[in-house]
Amino acid sequence: MNAPLKQHLIDPEICIRCNTCEETCPVDAITHDSNNYVVDAARCNLCMDCIPPCPTGSIDNWRIVGAPYSLEDQFSWEELPKQEQIATGDGAEAIDADVQALIDSAHTGAGGKSVAPASALKPSVNLYNRDSAAIATVTGNYRLTHEESDVDVHHIILDLGDTPLPVLEGQSIGIVPPGVDPDGKPHRIRLYSIASPRHGERPNHNNLALTVKRETNGVCSNYMCDLKKGDKVRITGPFGATFLMPNDPAANIIMICTGTGSAPFRAFTEWRRRAMPNATGRMLLFFGARRPQDLPYFGPLQKVPDSLLGKYFAYSRVPGEKKVYVQDLMRREETMLAKLAPSPHTHIYVCGLKGMEQGVDSALDDICRSAELRWADLRDAMRSEGRYHVETY
Ligand code: NAP
Prior knowledge:
By secondary structure, this protein is of the alpha/beta class. It folds into three domains: 5-106, Alpha-Beta Plaits (2-Layer Sandwich); 130-239, Beta Barrel (Elongation Factor Tu (Ef-tu), domain 3), CATH 2.40.30.10; 252-392, Rossmann fold (3-Layer(aba) Sandwich), CATH 3.40.50. It has ten helices and 15 strands. It has helices spanning 20-24, 71-76, 97-108, 219-225, 263-275, 298-302, 326-332, 334-340, 356-370, 375-384, and strands at 5-9, 30-32, 37-39, 61-65, 134-143, 153-159, 172-176, 190-193, 207-213, 232-239, 252-258, 283-289, 310-315, 346-352, 388-392. The chain has a six-stranded antiparallel beta sheet, covered by helices on one side. The structure holds NADP nicotinamide-adenine-dinucleotide phosphate (NAP). NADP nicotinamide-adenine-dinucleotide phosphate (NAP) is lined by residues 192-193, 211-213, 258-261, 263, 288-290, 316-317, 325-326, 351-353, 355-356, 359, 391, 393.
């Protein structure tokens, strides 16, 4: 048999098919078909470049194999195969310690270069999957955008009853939409960031909230936006072990988002408001939408005091006004951001449209230059200290 090797694989149950890994891979080892994103074992050099940008962690999966899974195998999967025992010695059951250690490390994931804030609590992950989904009951489904807006965003509250689902702010859950696609395969699980804090949408209730935008022809978003009180929903997860909030009242938290990318930041803000009302660290929110009517949580956000949350709204399509993006507002607040940037207490989170990532990066580059700092160096340091996080798709 071949010598055991560590094979890099992508979890088809969690992957949201955002193409980030394929774009990132420097050796073109990642490819996809209409079903799955897959890794070519013959090309993958285990460089780990694809691990940090993945918004879900689906990329961080490994198996120790005698012979690698082929691309055809991976294209056909609905879920990852279990780790098999690898016999290496003379006897069929013999397995040496090095191989066992490899297998153990594969189970915990590679870790990659993406790091959680040092003070963040350890999250629970992967408690439920498609076959053993948690069942929640819908207790609320409210439209978040103005009645005049053609953007239909909903705030959906799911009650878990007696089912334990411990979550932290910044984590996501999967929703299993009912039914099958035209090929008879079960619909793909869709991931949503949790928009409520760890101890519930309503404090000390075993419930959570999601922010869902109705997409034209979107199987899961239409299912979710049409849910009625009392309906049952199948949940997987929780997912995400790095895009987490620092558990530190001195932390400055700079949050940059568009549209429904605001979901985790609602959770961050609510947790700080409830758990650390006298926090000394600042919280700032740069939030982009086309018009005020399209901005989820616009009304409630107006009521959050500036002492808790500094709010900067960027509107790109207000008739008669210049297009403004979040990165334009950040440039406008250069003096304040340049002051916060070098602090070891400062954390930056970016969540929402993929296109915003580059604009935000270049705004931070300019802002840092104004303070004679090099953003590329600062960003690397912040990343390795778990203080810079990007979740865009
Ligand atoms: P959207 O309404 O399409 O866009 C929001 C704003 O971003 C618009 O004003 C848009 O301006 C602007 N924008 C477009 N390109 C930009 C760029 N390059 N730089 C800066 N701003 C830019 O947003 P959305 O549909 O709600 O999308 C939010 C994203 O968040 C989705 O990709 C979603 O998957 C992701 N997300 C959702 C969740 C969740 O839990 N639901 C969680 C995390 C992330 P113009 O259109 O006028 O150009």
